[in-house]
Fold this sequence. Notes:
Alpha-Beta Plaits; 24% helix; 6-stranded antiparallel sheet; elongated
Amino acid sequence: MSRKLLATVGVALLLVTAGCAGSLNPTESANAQTEQGDSGSETIGVSASGQAAAEPDQAVLQVAVVASDDDANAVRERLAQNATQMQEALRNAGVADDRIRTVQYSIDQRYREENGERRAAGFEGVHAFEITLSNVSRAGGIIDTAVSNGADRVDSVQLTLSEERKQEVRADALRDAMDNARADADVIAESANLTVSGVHTATTSDVGFSPIRTESLTADVAGDAGTSIESGPVTVTAQVSVTYNATG
């Protein structure tokens, strides 16, 4: 006779930028189902979440040189001068050229409303850079160097994980999700007078990841005391769907 039991509870899907490492409570992060297979054997299907956390080992900074003038060529020259000055200062601070890349370059006509008409009001140019650091503790000092040497804007600071470290933490999150799935399956099996005998199938969806972000800082961040960037653990979440074989 076919036996079927369905239990559904909330699934944790939120990405967290800072927090403590640890397992999600399996009874709060999964849904499960038991049913009879084609051959008459019982199976238990479970979806569960897991998480893992690690301290960031990479900082990604976005800074921009900004210039405005009535003449487009003057804007271009000022952008080039300030960008060159900033890059040279970063180089002297130990940031390699391949860790600095352009992410935006534009010179746009500006307009103003005058007596109901739209009139040209000069040009504004932006040259934005992304700076990648493998030492998170240097982020504040590098921001100060950039702002003191031509950068007019700090668009964002991300404290994140390098690709290698991200894969390690991802694996930990998946292990946690699998542990939670098995715990849920055991509970469901017990309630249905079954015993889990092994994994039938297992799949995972995309793993959630979010760096710690600080955005839209102004150029006066480089004060006498220097810029300080607060850190914290980066949390990775994972979700798995597992079907277990079960015996009665």
